[in-house]
Fold:
Amino acid sequence: MSTSALLFMIAVQGTVTAITAYYFFKVMGAPAKEEPDSYSDNDE
Structure:
């Protein structure tokens, strides 16, 4: 494997890992939805 191919592979893997981590932490850091306690709370 040539040096340029190795550098390109490392750059692509780093980019994909960074994007995956960004969206993972964005989803995990989102506030939880408030769910109703019972079905009677939805009666209006």
User: Anything to note?
Assistant: The mean pLDDT is 87. The longest helix spans residues 3-28. The chain is about 60% helix and 0% strand. The helical segments are 3-28.
